[in-house]
Amino acid sequence: MFKISRLPAETLPYADAVRAPVAAPMDIDDDLGEGTSLGGRRTVVTPGEVITSSKEYMRGHGTYVEDDNVVSSVAGTIERVNKLISVKALKSRYVPEVGDLVIGRIVEVGAQRWRVEANARQDAVLMLSSVNLPGGVQRRRVESDALKMREFLAEGDLLVAEVQAFFQDGAMSLHTRSLKYGKLRNGQLLPLPPRLVRRLKSHFYHLPPPCGPAGVDVILGLNGYVWVSLGTSQASREGGEGFDAEGVYRNENDEIDPESRQAITDVANVITTLANHDVPLSDALISEGYQWLRAADLEPGAPISKEVGDRLVYDLVLADE
Q1: Do 33 and 82 meet the contact criterion of CB atoms below 8 Å apart?
Q2: Are residues 251 and 317 in the same domain?
Q3: How far is CA 116 from CA 15, 102, 108, 142, 287, in A?
Q4: pLDDT averaged over the chain?
Q5: What DSSP string describes 67-112?
Q6: Which of 166, 174, 171, 238 is nearest to 206 (CA)?
Q7: What is residue 13's predicted lDDT score, i.e. its pLDDT?
Q8: Which among 133, 127, 103 is positioned nearest to 115, based on CA atoms?
Q9: Are 162 and 33 contained in the same domain?
Q10: Which residues constitute the domain of residue 265?
C-alpha cells in the first residue's frame, strides 16, 4: 500500500515559474459609461480575465470573486449598472423578460395549450385563453374551441407573441391578444444570435416602396428570430381597413409577385450579412443596407458575396468610426 500526498504549491521549487501572472484590473470608469456596455465602448473579456476590484464593485452574472478581484467566468462583453459588473456571454440562449416580443414555432398541441419553441432554455406555453378567436370574437373559450385548436395553430406554424408571465418552472407564458400578433405568413424566418437584437420601443418595421411594390415588413424578435415578409398597409397592420379578421389563422400564403420576392430576399440578405459581422440590428441600418445594395447596382435577389458583404459593413458601420 502506498499513499499519494499533495505538497502545497509554495513548497515547490518552480512554483513561481509556473504560476500564471495576474493581469492588472482594467479601469471600468474609463472603459464603460454609466448604464450598459451599449452606452460606451464595448469591452470584450475572456474567462479568467480580471475585470476590476471587488472592493469597489459588486459582481453580477458571468463573474466571480478571486483574490479581491472581480473575474470573468465567460467570454463576453462587460455591462455596468452603477456598481454592479456583469458579463454578457457572446453565445447564449435567449433570457426572456415580461413584455418581450418573440417569434416561435409550434411544436406540440396539447390540452388547452400549445407548446412553442422560442430559442430559450425551455419551450414556451401559449394558452388557448391567450389567443384571439377567428373574427376577433370576444367570448369565453368553450369545448368546441379546444377541439379546433389545430385549425388555429398546428405543429410547424410560426407566430409572433409577447411574453406575458412565467410559470413556476421558469417557462414563458405567451399571449397573442393583439392584432399585431398571431400566425406569420408570406415571408421567411432568419435565426440569429439573440445578442444582436436590442430591446427597442418597437420591433415592427416597414420598409416602404421602392423596396418592393408593397414594401417589406420586418419583425425583430428579441429571442433572435427575425421575420421578413411581404409588406402590408399601416391600417391593415393595426387592424383597421384592409385587415382580414377571418383569415388570421389561414395557412396558405398570398400570391407574391417576383419583384416582392426579390425585395424580401435582398432585405433578408442584408440582415444576414450584418449578423455575420456581429453588427446589432436596427431599422435604420436595415434600410440603409437595402439602399446600399440598390446603389451598388447589384442584381435584385442575388446572394451577397463575402467581398460585397465586407464592403457593405465597412461603408455602413466602420467608415464613420
Answers
A1: no
A2: yes
A3: 54, 10, 7, 22, 30
A4: 83
A5: TTEEEESSSEEEEEETTEEEEEESS--B---TT-EEEEEEEEE-SS
A6: 238
A7: 42
A8: 127
A9: no
A10: 185-321
More confident residue, 77 or 18: 77
Residue corresponding to grid cell 385548436 = 149
The CATH number of residue 124's host domain is 2.40.50.140
Final residue before a domain boundary, out of 184, 204, 229: 184
Instruction: Identify residue 68 by its one-letter amino acid code.
Output: D
In a domain, 2, yes or no: no
Given 89, 110, 142, the domain boundary residue is: 89
Give me the pLDDT at residue 33, please.
Answer: 47
pLDDT at 191: 95
Reported as a single tens digit per residue, the pLDDT across 215-224 is 999 999 999 9
- Greater confidence (14 vs 142) lies with 142
Any idea which residue has 391600417 for its cell? 235
